[in-house]
């Protein structure tokens, strides 16, 4: 049984806790929030009134009953908190995007190289779902000739931007913006399916806050191009498609993958490839992470770690290409978005 502590009190942590409760190999062992009252209310809301609530990170990390820490704080805090968890001798799951640049990733890599009994995972849930795996199988043996990966979802926090405010997810101080928040899904899918690209280019739609509200990216491969369309200022229903010459692999949403089809030629005939997805989108990734830890599967871990490293490199390259820069040091933020 793995006892898990959570950092962060936003909706995604609610979902993660629900996944922990569903998994017979895990249980919630502690809640962390910089605000003790918020943490206590969060624990009660999630049906965990008797779980310890910490408002000091060092005290949480000193708790010998905690095996693993899940980090869902604002993006700019991920690196320092992940480093602290590893130095405390615990496993860690960090929400995507885990780190803002390859230098941070290299530090985590060095820590893990010295601690081969510990595990770090980036929580890119969509690549662990049954339908993403079905998509990978559908592409096997085919020649990819291009792809359009789209994820555009209007953010309720964008209304605050329009009102002249700077919420965390639209702030460079907190490593925000559409590419970081939604584009990470697209980059993860592209690299998991096609590998690391030769080049990366991003044309952002800049907001007054100093980050991108959306944009168009391209990942260049030897014989095809992948177009990326992340956006947090519009509500789009454009699907994602992978082109195999005259055939097309289609999904309604590359981050959710509820529908998955293989279209034959130019007609409307298709094979329905979709299978049943877990009700909780985080269940599949948690199950895989727990299995890797319990089986001490270093090969599976190395594969996921390399994927995480490549995603970090490509996201950074896209931002550099677009002139999107985040401060190296920023003050602490609230636990939620």
Automatic annotation (TrEMBL):
Stored Pfam families: GFO_IDH_MocA
Domain spans labelled Gfo/Idh/MocA-like oxidoreductase N-terminal: 2-119
SUPFAM superfamilies listed in its UniProt record: Glyceraldehyde-3-phosphate dehydrogenase-like, C-terminal domain (SSF55347), NAD(P)-binding Rossmann-fold domains (SSF51735)
Name of the protein in question: Gfo/Idh/MocA family oxidoreductase
